Structure formats: structure tokens, C-alpha cells
Amino acid sequence: MMGTSKGEALIVDGKRLDGRKFDELRPIKIEAGVLEQADGSAYVEMGGSHVLAAVYGPVEMHPRHKMLPDRVVLQTQYEMAPFSVPDRKRPGPDRRSKEIAKVTKEALESVIYVEDYAQSAIRLHIEILQADAGTRVTGLTAASVALADAGIKMRDMVAACASGKIDDTIVLDLNGIEDNTGQADLPVAYAVGLDEITLLQMDGLMTEDEFEQGLKYAIDGCKTIYELQKDALKRRYKNE
Ligand code: UDP
């Protein structure tokens, strides 16, 4: 959620509080195939946001009345661990987690060869182990690698990151303080090879020019993340 009040400065001497440049991502770590029992998995860190994604399937669709005759159903769960945030998060789904699961599902279904798995389900679980803003985009980045690791046929992989507005300045990849007290947040998921945006949301206000700048930052950020996703998959299959 975007803050509304102006507190401490978030940009000092042209730098952000954590020393980053305006168009700089937080340190990123991506690992593919981190879980033994799931068909595919990935672990991703974007700064202080740490996320695990696991994929089961394709499996038979249950409940059967939700089965689709001509395409797969990507059953998506986004869950924040109770210990992922400073104030213990009550376990179980809430409006926010349902919304994030829905946009995540849609962002990924647009790259999966959905007709190839008609009448089946693919189960995707995104677990936020530690949250410091940008968990939906970190979850998407992890989910995409987990799907690839599970061998799910896709037209491309989706990389995701958010840009935003703090102290009237457009910056890439907000951290927790920036997200809490900033003015806008623009999460983007982008399939780099296809040049397709598969998720675009905005919380807060930006002018048209600011939006263009924010989108450019986010797309460039996604290009960097996409390379790291591919590296993680290559490392995973070299070690087999
Ligand atoms: N957050 C929290 N408790 C909650 C939900 C969110 O502390 O119940 C924090 C968490 O750091 C999260 C941030 O607020 O990453 C921003 O949440 P938002 O809904 O904007 O989604 P996100 O940026 O994580 O995709």
C-alpha cells in the first residue's frame, strides 16, 4: 500500500537511502530446482523479499466441474508466511492474497501453451518467506522459473519487477520503506523474448510522462532478471 503522508526524505544527494541509483535493482538471487518433491521449484531473493515457488503437475483437475475442455487451469496460490512481515500475518487467504493469485495466474497463463494441457490442472504455490515490498513480482519471477523447471511448455518466460515514485522521482524496484512511504508503485511482468507485457498494475498516482519512465525502468529491470532466470535454469541442468 502506498503511504499518503510525507515523512523523512527517501532520496538524499541524488541517491536512495540504501545507496541505489534510481534505475538500480536490489541484489537478486535465483535458484531453480530447490525442492525434491515438487515437479518444479525455484527460490528467488530480491533484496529483502524472499520467495519460494513450487509446481505440481500437470495433474487431473479437481474439482472436476472446474475442468476446462480446451485448456489447462493454472491453480495458483499466493501465501505470505506468518513470519514474513514485522507484524505477524494471520495465516490463510485474504482479499490481497486472492487478488495477487489471480493476476499472477493470468500473467503466466498468457505464456503457457494452455491448449496442450486441456482438461488438466497445473498447481502453483507461491510462498512469501520474507517480505520487503515487491512480493507479487518476486513471486512471478520465481513461478516462471518453477514452471520451466517442471517442464511446462511455454512460449517464453516471464520476468517481473516494479518501478514506482518516491519523493516525486521515478525509481526502479521499491524496497519496504520506499513502498510504505512512497507515492506510487507500478508492478510489471514482461515476457522479454515475445516483447509482451503480461501484468501491469498501478497503486498511487503518476503523470503520463512519469508512467512512461516507470514502464521503461521496469522493462529494463525485467530484461536483467530474465537473464538471471535463464542462468539459474542452465546451472540447474548442468548439475544433473
Ligand atoms: N505488507 C505487510 N503486511 C501485509 C501485506 C503487505 O507488511 O499483510 C508489506 C510487505 O512488505 C509487502 C508490502 O507491504 O511486500 C507491499 O505490499 P503490496 O500489497 O503493495 O504488494 P507487493 O509490493 O508485496 O507485491
List key phrases describing it.
single chain, 240 residues, 5-stranded mixed β-sheet, 5-stranded antiparallel β-sheet, 4 helices, globular, PNPase/RNase_PH_dom_sf, exosome, cytoplasm, Exosome complex exonuclease Rrp41, RNA binding
Written overview of the protein:
The model has no long low-confidence stretch (mean pLDDT 96). The termini are far apart. This protein has four helices and twelve strands, in the order E-E-E-E-E-E-H-E-H-E-E-H-E-E-E-H. The strands form three sheets. The chain has a five-stranded mixed beta sheet. Strands 8, 9, 10, 11 and 12 form a five-stranded antiparallel beta sheet that branches. A two-stranded antiparallel ribbon has the order 1-2. With 240 residues, the chain is an alpha+beta fold. The protein has a single domain, classed as Ribosomal Protein S5, domain 2 (2-Layer Sandwich). Bound molecules: uridine-5'-diphosphate (UDP). The site of uridine-5'-diphosphate has 13 residues, from helix 2 and helix 3. Keywords: Cytoplasm, Exonuclease, Exosome, Hydrolase, Nuclease. GO terms for molecular function: RNA binding; RNA exonuclease activity, producing 5'-phosphomonoesters. It comes from Candidatus Undinarchaeum marinum.
Could you give a quick summary of the protein structure above?
Pfam families: RNase_PH, RNase_PH_C. 28% of the residues lie in helices and 31% in strands. With 240 residues, it is α+β, with helices and mostly antiparallel strands.
